[in-house]
Design a protein that fits this description.
single chain; about 200 residues; alpha+beta; Nuclear Transport Factor 2, Chain: A; four-stranded antiparallel sheet; two-stranded antiparallel sheet; 6 strands; rod-shaped; membrane; transmembrane; Conjugative transposon protein TraK
Length: about 200
């Protein structure tokens, strides 16, 4: 009788161990499944699909800190493009200047007002002059905030009788602001000033 009881107790202990092993194994499998599911979700959420010209293009999301220099340079480039790309059309000039002024503080508006008072934009319109700009390089110091930059660009003033090439060098600082439809990069140019803006050559047809 005692032998029978010992066998029952041994079997019971074995069953307990088996049940404990099954529970532990199930817990490990569940944790592993949750981990891999979360990793897969993170990987999937890092991929963005952008619709361009009717085609879905895949992009990869990244932390903003990884893209700050790239976004900062593009912000500076787009500001100069809008501020200095002008055609002899008042609506085009006003449209581009308004876009530029969303990207900078009152220092840019002061330069715009100064040029307007000197009839610079009226002269472009009356002379049928188009102005284009090419940003050659941007030096950006990310070691201190706000971020200092110096922009080197080439201007081209096109008229029917000649084309004037100019060297443009500006400098300023970037600070962070909230992103918006008018300011996609979330930067604002401040203390912006023109260091050099001089003719380099004149081409005549």
């Amino acid at each position: 009788m005692f032998t029978h009881l010992r066998n029952i107790e041994t079997a019971f202990q074995q069953n307990k161990r088996i049940v404990a092993l099954v529970i532990l194994t199930s817990a490990i499998i569940s944790i592993a499944a949750i981990y891999f599911a979360f990793a897969a979700y993170q990987k999937a959420s890092a991929h963005i699909y952008v619709l361009a010209n009717g085609k879905a293009l895949e992009a990869i999301a990244a932390d903003r800190k990884d893209n700050i220099p790239v976004e900062a340079r593009d912000h500076i480039k787009m500001f100069h493009h809008y501020f200095f790309t002008l055609d002899p059309d008042e609506k085009v000039i006003d449209g581009n200047i308004n876009k530029a002024l969303y990207l900078a503080d009152e220092s840019a508006r002061n330069q715009y007002n100064d040029l307007r008072e000197k009839s610079y934009y009226n002269n472009l319109i009356s002379g049928n002059i188009s102005q284009q700009i090419t940003v050659d390089s941007i030096r950006l110091n990310m070691d201190s905030y706000p971020y200092y930059f110096k922009c080197f660009a080439t201007e081209k003033l096109i008229r029917s009788t000649s084309t004037i090439h100019k060297i443009l060098v500006t400098q300023g600082y970037l600070r962070n602001v909230t992103r918006s439809d008018n300011n996609a990069h979330g930067f604002l140019i401040e203390r912006w000033e023109t260091i050099t803006n001089r003719d380099t050559s004149i081409n005549r047809p």
